[in-house]
Automatic annotation (TrEMBL):
Gene3D superfamilies: Dihydrodipicolinate Reductase, domain 2 (3.30.360.10), NAD(P)-binding Rossmann-like Domain (3.40.50.720). Residues 137-381 form the Saccharopine dehydrogenase-like C-terminal domain. It comes from Floridaenema evergladense BLCC-F167. Residues 5-133 form the Saccharopine dehydrogenase NADP binding domain. This is Saccharopine dehydrogenase family protein. PANTHER family: CARBOXYNORSPERMIDINE SYNTHASE.
Length: 399
């Protein structure tokens, strides 16, 4: 039996709390976040005796350490924002708590996300005998587990990886983001980047796009983006010749985004407004719908997967592995939409892997460095069934 602390009571925190509360491995759960009302609202909806709540500003290391010492969790799931990653990793080291997150660290004043800051903790976690699992949502997260599973069971060498992420849902709003608006817009407006033949190639934001077919959905225009799992997968699977990430956006979404950018509303540097410094993107966030508020009226599904090509027994192999998740089914089950659901479920499975001892090794790891099989065994039963298509023509055959 293990004690779990969840930090962050947004869309993903809600799913993590719901799913963790029904796992017998967790005896006590503390949901802590900046706004206690959000924690209490989630706890009331779940109605589990295991679950308690607390206020926490995770930018404040002393208060974070104090709360960790009081509750003494075995593992902390960080589903606050990427800005809090380092404080939470430091606090876990100080108190002796295992750590797991779903997004890599970003400095608030620099639209740059990479694993370097968190990978530097490896030796300290190793010496402390603690485990930190990085990027254990869906993408990053399941996409890394899918790739590791493909390598273990279907390939001798992986050469080409295309991660494809489609949201074919409709929430009825003119413009909204599916997870934290600030983090989401920073991700999409940055320069596009992919890996080819040992180099990172940069292209203007959203400048490369093509229609890609998604199971049960059909073709959707998909845009090449830089996504953080590319960095760790290229490092851990050195036979990769090319790795790319694609995400669907509607024309209306892109037009809204372009207008917001042209107006300067996606800027992350402070500007003077009547004598007060404000960051335009943070102001924009206050105007946009909260991702969790989209859930009630969301219809349609998401489809995320990995198209992989490489060699098996000296022959070329095409392989596709994916999950589709239905927004309204997620809402019926946990009161959240599919983006939050597909992030929260893997985070809970990752935490179970650590507290059960299966992924418990000292150091800081990305998911593809861990055994994919026990994780994949739980994925379907916890709500994210997955499917494989082997040796059929790939939409990426030509390029
Ligand atoms: P939300 O904005 O809905 O929730 C974030 C929560 O974190 C809010 O409850 C917020 O509190 C809380 N928070 C923010 N700052 C602090 C702080 N300093 N101390 C304590 N709590 C804080 O975001 P989501 O739930 O949509 O996303 C959560 C995380 O999941 C993000 O890091 C996101 O990048 C990641 N993610 C990962 C995905 C993946 O597949 N790997 C996909 C989608 C999301 P308050 O309510 O007071 O603002």
């Amino acid at each position: 039996m293990a004690r779990l602390m969840i930090v962050g009571a947004g869309g993903v925190g809600n799913v993590v709390a719901h799913k963790a509360a029904v796992q017998e491995e967790f005896s006590e759960i503390l949901l802590a976040s900046r706004t206690i009302e959000k924690c209490d609202h989630i706890a009331k909806r779940i109605g589990s005796k295991k679950l308690q709540t607390a206020t926490l500003d995770a930018d404040d290391i002393n208060n974070t350490i104090k709360l960790l010492k009081e509750f003494r969790p075995d593992i902390l799931i960080n589903v606050a924002l990427p800005y809090q990653d380092l404080v939470l990793m430091d606090a876990c080291l100080e108190v002796g708590v295992n750590y797991l997150d779903t997004a890599n660290y970003e400095p608030p004043d620099l639209a740059k996300f990479e694993y370097s800051w968190q990978w530097k903790y490896h030796d300290r976690y190793k010496e402390a005998g603690l485990t930190a699992i990085l990027g254990c949502g869906f993408d990053p997260g399941v996409t890394g587990v899918f790739t590791a599973y493909a390598l273990k069971h279907h390939f001798d060498e992986i050469h080409y990886l295309d991660i494809v992420d489609c949201n074919a849902g409709n929430h009825g709003q003119a413009f909204a983001t599916n997870f934290n608006p600030e983090i989401n817009i920073r991700e999409i407006t940055q320069v596009g980047r992919y890996y080819e033949n040992g180099e990172w190639i940069e292209v203007p934001p959203l400048s490369i796009h093509r229609p890609i077919p998604y199971p049960e959905i059909g073709e959707k225009e998909s845009y090449l983006l830089y996504h953080e799992e590319l960095e760790s997968l290229v490092k851990h699977i050195p036979t990769l010749k090319r790795a790319r990430f694609w995400m669907t956006f509607s024309q209306s979404y892109i037009t809204h985004l372009q207008v917001l950018e042209n107006l300067g509303l996606t800027r992350i540097d402070p500007v003077d407004y009547e004598g007060t410094k404000i960051v335009p993107l943070k102001f924009l966030k206050t105007l946009l719908p909260e991702p969790s508020s989209l859930a009630a009226n969301y219809t349609g599904q998401t489809s995320i997967g990995c198209h992989i090509r490489g060699l098996k027994n000296g022959k070329n192999r095409n392989y596709y592995i994916y999950n589709n998740c239905d927004h309204s089914k997620a809402y019926q089950e946990v009161g959240g939409q599919a983006i939050s659901y597909t992030t929260g479920v893997p985070a809970v499975i990752g935490a179970l892997m650590v507290v059960n001892g299966i992924w418990k090794k000292p150091g800081v790891f990305n998911v593809e460095q861990c055994d994919p099989d026990p994780f994949m065994e739980l994925l379907g039963s916890l709500g994210l069934p997955w499917y494989e298509i082997i040796d059929r023509p790939s939409p990426f055959e030509e390029n």
